[in-house]
Amino acid sequence: MSEYLKSFVPDSFHRSVIFQDQLVQAIERIAERIPQNEVWTRFSTAASPGETGGIAKFPYYRVDTSLASCEIHTILAGRPKTPEQTQRHTALASTSAFETLVWVEIGFGGLEGLIANRTASINLGFSETERQNGQGLASTNEQYERVLRRFATLREGSGVADDDFSRYGMETLLDQFK
Fold it and tell me: I need a surface site. Which of 8, 70, 129, 141 has the fewest CB within 10 A?
Protein backbone atom coordinates (compact mmCIF):
# COMPACT_ATOMS: atom_id res chain seq x y z
CA MET A 1 0.00 0.00 0.00
CA SER A 2 1.22 3.43 -0.85
CA GLU A 3 2.04 5.53 2.18
CA TYR A 4 1.46 8.54 -0.03
CA LEU A 5 -2.15 7.56 -0.71
CA LYS A 6 -2.66 6.61 2.93
CA SER A 7 -1.65 10.15 3.91
CA PHE A 8 -4.86 11.48 2.32
CA VAL A 9 -7.16 9.53 4.65
CA PRO A 10 -8.44 11.77 7.46
CA ASP A 11 -7.70 10.62 11.01
CA SER A 12 -11.46 10.61 11.63
CA PHE A 13 -12.05 7.96 8.94
CA HIS A 14 -12.20 4.51 10.56
CA ARG A 15 -13.31 2.17 7.77
CA SER A 16 -11.33 -0.05 5.43
CA VAL A 17 -9.88 1.56 2.32
CA ILE A 18 -8.75 -0.10 -0.88
CA PHE A 19 -5.86 1.92 -2.25
CA GLN A 20 -5.37 1.91 -6.01
CA ASP A 21 -1.61 2.34 -6.14
CA GLN A 22 -1.61 2.37 -9.94
CA LEU A 23 -3.23 5.83 -9.77
CA VAL A 24 -0.63 7.49 -7.51
CA GLN A 25 0.76 9.68 -10.29
CA ALA A 26 -2.70 11.07 -11.10
CA ILE A 27 -3.24 11.95 -7.43
CA GLU A 28 0.20 13.54 -7.19
CA ARG A 29 -0.66 15.86 -10.09
CA ILE A 30 -4.11 16.67 -8.68
CA ALA A 31 -2.73 17.32 -5.16
CA GLU A 32 -0.44 19.99 -6.61
CA ARG A 33 -3.55 21.99 -7.55
CA ILE A 34 -6.16 21.40 -4.82
CA PRO A 35 -5.89 20.83 -1.04
CA GLN A 36 -5.22 17.29 0.16
CA ASN A 37 -8.47 17.03 2.15
CA GLU A 38 -10.42 17.90 -0.99
CA VAL A 39 -8.55 15.31 -3.02
CA TRP A 40 -9.79 12.65 -0.58
CA THR A 41 -13.35 14.04 -0.48
CA ARG A 42 -13.70 14.40 -4.24
CA PHE A 43 -11.80 11.35 -5.46
CA SER A 44 -12.68 8.54 -3.05
CA THR A 45 -15.83 6.57 -2.33
CA ALA A 46 -15.69 7.44 1.38
CA ALA A 47 -19.03 9.27 1.23
CA SER A 48 -20.75 6.62 -0.92
CA PRO A 49 -19.06 3.24 -0.41
CA GLY A 50 -22.15 1.37 -1.63
CA GLU A 51 -20.85 1.71 -5.17
CA THR A 52 -17.72 -0.22 -4.26
CA GLY A 53 -19.22 -2.97 -2.11
CA GLY A 54 -19.23 -1.03 1.15
CA ILE A 55 -15.47 -0.50 1.21
CA ALA A 56 -13.99 2.91 0.47
CA LYS A 57 -11.71 3.12 -2.57
CA PHE A 58 -9.08 5.75 -3.16
CA PRO A 59 -8.53 7.14 -5.64
CA TYR A 60 -11.80 6.55 -7.40
CA TYR A 61 -13.90 8.69 -9.71
CA ARG A 62 -16.81 8.01 -12.08
CA VAL A 63 -16.43 10.27 -15.11
CA ASP A 64 -19.61 8.90 -16.69
CA THR A 65 -21.69 9.67 -13.59
CA SER A 66 -20.14 13.10 -13.17
CA LEU A 67 -20.79 14.03 -16.79
CA ALA A 68 -24.42 12.90 -16.45
CA SER A 69 -24.81 15.05 -13.33
CA CYS A 70 -23.21 18.04 -15.03
CA GLU A 71 -25.50 17.65 -18.02
CA ILE A 72 -28.69 17.35 -15.96
CA HIS A 73 -27.87 20.37 -13.78
CA THR A 74 -26.80 22.45 -16.78
CA ILE A 75 -30.14 21.75 -18.46
CA LEU A 76 -32.08 22.48 -15.25
CA ALA A 77 -30.16 25.75 -14.72
CA GLY A 78 -31.44 26.83 -18.13
CA ARG A 79 -35.04 26.14 -17.12
CA PRO A 80 -35.31 27.93 -13.80
CA LYS A 81 -38.43 28.56 -11.82
CA THR A 82 -36.59 30.84 -9.40
CA PRO A 83 -33.19 32.58 -9.34
CA GLU A 84 -32.24 30.34 -6.38
CA GLN A 85 -32.89 27.22 -8.47
CA THR A 86 -30.73 28.59 -11.28
CA GLN A 87 -27.95 29.32 -8.81
CA ARG A 88 -28.25 25.89 -7.18
CA HIS A 89 -28.21 23.96 -10.47
CA THR A 90 -25.36 26.07 -11.84
CA ALA A 91 -23.32 25.37 -8.68
CA LEU A 92 -23.99 21.62 -8.89
CA ALA A 93 -23.10 21.56 -12.60
CA SER A 94 -19.94 23.51 -11.86
CA THR A 95 -18.83 21.06 -9.16
CA SER A 96 -19.30 18.10 -11.51
CA ALA A 97 -17.52 19.86 -14.38
CA PHE A 98 -14.64 20.92 -12.13
CA GLU A 99 -14.08 17.46 -10.68
CA THR A 100 -14.31 15.83 -14.11
CA LEU A 101 -11.81 18.23 -15.64
CA VAL A 102 -9.39 17.97 -12.71
CA TRP A 103 -9.54 14.14 -12.82
CA VAL A 104 -9.22 13.86 -16.61
CA GLU A 105 -7.08 16.83 -17.65
CA ILE A 106 -4.83 17.25 -14.62
CA GLY A 107 -4.77 13.68 -13.35
CA PHE A 108 -4.36 11.96 -16.71
CA GLY A 109 -3.42 14.67 -19.20
CA GLY A 110 -6.67 14.24 -21.15
CA LEU A 111 -9.09 11.53 -22.17
CA GLU A 112 -6.49 9.54 -24.05
CA GLY A 113 -4.38 9.26 -20.90
CA LEU A 114 -7.42 8.31 -18.81
CA ILE A 115 -8.52 5.63 -21.24
CA ALA A 116 -4.98 4.27 -21.54
CA ASN A 117 -5.03 3.67 -17.78
CA ARG A 118 -6.96 0.42 -17.35
CA THR A 119 -7.64 1.03 -13.65
CA ALA A 120 -9.00 4.54 -14.12
CA SER A 121 -11.04 3.85 -17.24
CA ILE A 122 -12.83 0.75 -15.97
CA ASN A 123 -15.79 2.98 -15.02
CA LEU A 124 -16.31 4.68 -18.36
CA GLY A 125 -18.95 2.20 -19.49
CA PHE A 126 -17.29 0.57 -22.49
CA SER A 127 -15.82 -2.87 -23.02
CA GLU A 128 -12.22 -3.97 -23.45
CA THR A 129 -12.89 -4.57 -27.17
CA GLU A 130 -14.22 -1.02 -27.54
CA ARG A 131 -11.15 0.27 -25.71
CA GLN A 132 -8.84 -1.60 -28.07
CA ASN A 133 -10.45 -0.37 -31.26
CA GLY A 134 -10.96 3.22 -30.11
CA GLN A 135 -14.77 3.21 -29.95
CA GLY A 136 -14.69 3.89 -26.22
CA LEU A 137 -12.57 6.98 -26.73
CA ALA A 138 -14.75 8.25 -29.57
CA SER A 139 -18.05 7.90 -27.69
CA THR A 140 -16.61 9.22 -24.42
CA ASN A 141 -14.95 12.13 -26.21
CA GLU A 142 -18.23 13.11 -27.89
CA GLN A 143 -20.10 13.14 -24.57
CA TYR A 144 -17.23 14.91 -22.80
CA GLU A 145 -17.07 17.67 -25.42
CA ARG A 146 -20.85 18.14 -25.64
CA VAL A 147 -21.52 18.28 -21.89
CA LEU A 148 -18.56 20.49 -21.01
CA ARG A 149 -19.17 22.85 -23.93
CA ARG A 150 -22.76 23.31 -22.78
CA PHE A 151 -21.61 23.91 -19.20
CA ALA A 152 -18.92 26.42 -20.29
CA THR A 153 -21.59 28.35 -22.19
CA LEU A 154 -23.87 28.37 -19.12
CA ARG A 155 -21.05 29.45 -16.81
CA GLU A 156 -19.94 32.25 -19.12
CA GLY A 157 -23.51 33.46 -19.67
CA SER A 158 -24.43 33.45 -15.99
CA GLY A 159 -21.31 35.32 -14.88
CA VAL A 160 -20.24 32.79 -12.25
CA ALA A 161 -17.35 34.26 -10.31
CA ASP A 162 -17.03 32.16 -7.16
CA ASP A 163 -16.97 28.50 -8.11
CA ASP A 164 -14.15 25.95 -7.79
CA PHE A 165 -12.68 27.00 -11.14
CA SER A 166 -12.19 30.56 -9.91
CA ARG A 167 -11.26 29.60 -6.32
CA TYR A 168 -8.37 27.46 -7.54
CA GLY A 169 -7.42 29.57 -10.54
CA MET A 170 -8.34 26.84 -13.01
CA GLU A 171 -10.69 28.68 -15.36
CA THR A 172 -8.32 27.78 -18.20
CA LEU A 173 -9.51 24.17 -17.97
CA LEU A 174 -12.69 25.41 -19.65
CA ASP A 175 -10.96 27.26 -22.50
CA GLN A 176 -11.05 24.28 -24.86
CA PHE A 177 -14.86 24.16 -24.52
CA LYS A 178 -15.61 27.80 -25.37
Answer: 129
